[in-house]
Fold each of these.
Amino acid sequence: MTHFISSVEFVFGLYCLLLLVVYVMLFRMSWLSIRRNLQKHSSRHVQTLMESEIAPGVSIVAPAYNESVTIVNNVRSLMTLFYPRYEVVIVNDGSKDDTLAKLIKEFDLVAVDFLVDYLVPCKEIKAIYKSRDISHKHLTVVDKINGGSKADAVNAGINVAAFPYILNTDVDCVLANDTLVYLMEAVLDAKERVIAVGATLRMSNSSYVDSGMLVEAALPKPILARFQEMEYIRSYLLGKMGWNYLNCIPNVSGGLGLFDKEILIMAGGYDPKSLGEDMEMVTRMCMKMCDNNEKYEVKYIPQTLCWTEGPDSLKMLTRQRIRWARGLMQIMRTHRRAFFNPSYKRFGLVVFPYNAIFEFFAPVMEILGIFFYIYLILTNGINWQMAILLLIFVYAFSVFLTSFSILLDNYVYKYYKRREDIVRLCLTVFLEPFIYHPIIVYSSIKGYIQELFGKKHAWGEMKRKGTLTALSPNGTKK
Amino acid sequence: MLSTLVHIIRDIRAFFEGDGWAVLVTVALLLSVLFWTICLIGIAFFYYRDYRYRNVYSRIYPALRDFIYEQILVNNKASHFPVDKLGLDLHNKLVGNVVRHIIHEFIFTVGGEKGQSLRRLFNELGFDKEAQYEIRHSAANMVTTVGSLANLALMKVPIQEKILDQLLKSPQVEIRVAASKYLLQVEGEQAFDRVFEGLIGISQLQALDIFQTVVQGDYYGNYMFSQWLNVSKSFAVNSLFMDLMVYYQELNEAGLWALITANKESKTALKAINSLGKLLAKDSEERLQDLYTEESSLAAKLEILKALGRVGQGKSNDFLNRLFMDSNLPLSLRKHAYRSLVAQRPYSIPLLRKIDEQVDRVESKLIRYVNHPMVHYI
């Protein structure tokens, strides 16, 4: 029995040690990666790409389902981006409300004879609308039968898109005006072919917007949204920017991702059955490039370019995280052949194993660890002094890592102009391990169990509360 | 040697068998707390730096704006500005940065003679000397050097030949590109040979940057950009010259065909085919048709069809018609074939009428799609 306990202790110890090493590496690499990005960016004249006649075109694909309340402002926001060549493709995914009617009325749309080449699978497209108003000539609205997933709607948008790059975003996301400039800079400045680029996302729950455009970023007031804001900052600036240094990015977020259309189509488009369609798509694109023996890059940039409304109720948050956990499990199962497969190069040897061991297994290890702890307490086999010391260390280390992410965020740009927002964010760091983290672990385990037993996933509806605070014309908050 | 190693391993084991773990964890804990404190100091520092910049900016902007309006826009002063009246401490780095930033904003919005006056004001404030100093002494700091070169280019301040030569040969591509842009902005056409000769290792973004610098200058002559096309050069470099050829309508079919035949599947070849079309290379029409039958990639075939449409000499009407009527071909190829046929009017009018009479439902939908004025065709 003693031998068994020692072995279990060794496994947990080794796992924690490896995780610690990974985090220390990410700490160093994220700093280098962000510094390099900022140096490169400040050595360029921002206007160059904005004014260029020969800049590659980008199609923005934004699916909308029952977005009647916010659709007009959101589309206007997408139409005001600074970039010389782009189009906006709004996919009305069989909305039951008057989303389409509002678009038709507001933008003076008419159905046109558009012959769709179904390059990637999607449900039938009923009609395609263009505006009679020349100032909206870049807008295309696709009306299709509901496919039951965002993936299906994005595929429809890809089939209609005219340009070689696709920006996948949600219609309710608020994008920075220079989003396309930043993302395309990353594509055009790379040594190898860039198949996907992402940027930092954060919560828009308490930010101030005017006509769909962000006026001032503010820290979310609801505590759950604030935890998510902190999690996003850590995940993007520490995690993704760290992996960016090694060209080992596992995922480009569904909220904001720029993709090479040719590779997207070659890989078969988004999988409507996947619950983690964004990560699954990037996985398939990377594997396709390796199969074709072509060099590629997946890049991330540290600037925040997208603000999205995060779930601020426990029910919606757990539902979202259960879906993400199930999606991750599906990917691990579907693409298991990539696991430590040298023919998939760094994707097979670093990205996929890291995801499997430290992302997928992490909640399982945590739960098992807690049970093991309880067992040791009951059998009086615990060294209390050492255990408490270790707990304090783990807590201090997690607080340090999140604080470091906030430091990186301030290094990139001062998004919060108010001092109170930064102070509140720094204080929230202390609560996260006790309140937010257990929710995430619980949701992940629940998601794995649901996936194992094949429970049907209900997408549910993310209720838009319109928590984006609007400004009146004289600048006061409504 | 071996005994020393064994001794070290024994020491390590003894360390962990004793209080080693506790000591190690305590050290890690203390380090975490230390780094956390450094993070907090860093966050406060960045916040304070931004706060100070905003404060200084809001203090200087009204005074400098009024000064520019009064001296340059109202009094039409072109030089010898009473800069002492501003009372700015330009030795303070922050104040210098803010003033530079504000004058840049004005220079980008005000052109002509007033713009020249603003440039002189910039120089009279001593920023030209500062930038000259920085390019000589900050060669290792890429951002400072690039920024200084951009300032000097904007103000058209000459740089010593020896220093410029060093910058053009810098190991950092960003500095080389900034020096090239400086030369193009200050010397214009005279610098073409010198700049284009040294273009190595640039990215597509940097190529685009150089393209913008050339076309935004006052050059409109007949320089042979095609002399720099070379199959051994990277896509970014060849792409830059092809873009310049298209912009200035300089046709060199032999040069472009050399790129196409060197590597048929590459991005360079696709761009060369595209350029042939945009340059209306009428002698290449038949050769493009031959290339279509040899090519295997869909992207290349699409580029060939687009090019045939642009050349529009009517020699490829039958070829395009055959492709359009072939229902086994991908829709995108048929679409571009028809589009190119439409572009060949008036030569293709009889053929288009004939097509209208014999097409089926799918083809007629395709025709309606191509001809629809509201479907933006790219």
Amino acid sequence: MTPRTTVLTAAAHPLAAGGASEHRTLIITLFSVFVAATLGITVWAGRQTRDATDFYAGGRSFTGFQNGLAISGDYMSAASFLGIAGAISLYGYDGFLYSIGFLVAWLVALLLVAEPLRNSGRFTMADVLAHRLKQRPVRTAAGTSTIVVSIFYLLAQMVGAGALVALLLGATGEGARRWIIVLVGLVMVLYVTIGGMKGTTWVQIVKAVMLIAGTLLITLLVLNKFHWNLSTLLGRAADASGKGRAFLEPGLQYGKDGTSKLNFVSLGLALVLGTAGLPHILIRFYTVPTARAARKSVNWAIGIIGAFYLMTIALGFGAAALVGPKAITASNESGNTAAPLLAQEVGGGAGSTGGAILLAVISAVAFATILAVVAGLTLASSASFAHDLWANVIRKGRTSEKEEILTAKLAAVVIGAVSIALGIFAHRLNAAALVALAFAVAASANLPTILYSLFWKRFTTQGALWSIYGGLISSVTLVILSPVVSGNPKALFPGMSFDYFPLGNPGLVSIPLGFALGWLGSLLSKPAPDQEKKYAELEVRSLTGYGAH
Amino acid sequence: MDSEEAVGIPPTAPDGPVEPARPTIPAQPDNFLDVQSSAEFGELRSAHRSFAFPLTVAFVSWYLLYVLLSNYAGGFMDTVVVGNINIALVFGLAQFLTTFLIAWWYARHAEAKIDPKVEALKARLEAGE
């Protein structure tokens, strides 16, 4: 292995021409093994899926630890693995905010949401609201916001998948990129329609173990290169970044002016308040038998996810030090491929066997990550469509369980098709920044209603509708008018400019608006005559677990 | 198994002769308003709220302090602690540490103070059916 295999060579050709085919074979083999194994699990789980509780909630048969792993698998997405590593490798310290916000957010879920939700709901977030508010309008609103949040989140995963394919196949792989996205979409639909929640949960457990193992391996190899000295690693990253000490200090990405500083606050707020409003995370609390098990699963998740995000420091700064920002941006403008490039580097560099093997392993892990997360999202949104919109709003509760599950499966196919289409178009954006938008929508549209429903006696149906639709419409509109969508070369539509809202993340405006509308809408409406009685029932059920499904 | 924990709080002991002394939960559990206004339920609610609410305010403030300092107190955050490790990094790692500690603390509190009350109340509600 010659030290001559430099970073710059890797920059020009992410994969040396000679090694490319052999890498590809290895990656395809590893990935096929994962897909085959998980599809096997899915078929097995599908045979045990009989009723709606099995399909939506995995029969509520998972233990706290199993669900903790599955939550981690559902949560540590391509955005975390590829996006954060990329953001740190390019912007240094500012990328680290994602790791911190994504983790601290779990405390909201732990202290306020997980247990009461498990106690009082059945399959979806809207079940809890339907206890005390007018069922049909509230389910329509919650179902709509569930689907919108999930689609934003799906888009981020598809962008990650596209970036990986481009890395592995080079610039000529545009056709291949499309095919891989189609493949990812197909496999995720298979997971959900065949295996339901049981199959999806096992896929997430397997993926969580793989992701933690892969990240730990790269972290150890990186730290070993710097003699287990974090300070040396940071120093080398700062030197290689070309930004010097500023790379290790806050402000490189968000400190330019007053607007970008506000954007940082906006992002920070969205991250910490978004998690407890994410539909695919909320439905995971229904897969355990009791509220106590739900609490245990969140505690396990906090431990696992925390350990993972600590390792993103080594991944991100390691990529900056060893791969270098030039090579990273040459491969993907937003840094989404920093982690696999780092794996190749610590394995011995481009062209070496070790590098090829590690690149293949980490790419396969990243694909597994994407597959597991998109499956969770597809399940959450199709469950909400079938259970909330179809069974309870359109058919007014006159469906059979069989019909409801069939509807969910059909919805999964449609959502799969939508995300494939979106994934083919969006690829310039950073996956972590995209996911942060999903967090902002969740924090604006879902979290206020969940908290008010559980803890505020005076909350009304009008308050819920104002909050959900107000939070949803304001956050999505502000995203459309933001620099993420137009007005600059990195935007979704670089050729157009209608970027009238200066912040990349809408949270700072739309989250307080969602809370304020819920409060105002409630106070301006007359409470239903049985309001107090219904809230008493919800409060007793949510705290004691009396009559829990 | 958890009844050992409950011994420290006499009013919630699930069994024992003290029962008739307090405003008791009505026989038909469908009347959730009466359950909600019972003393036992009040204690359970406050065991959760008096712990979770202040702690939520605390960790959200602590996190926002970190976000704001990163933004508007660059000079302070850039102070070197040792080698290439600055206050900003230490502050970020401290957020990890406090998250782990709060999660552990809440789990301990819930097992000691909330779960026994839940068990007792739920058992009585179900017995009333």
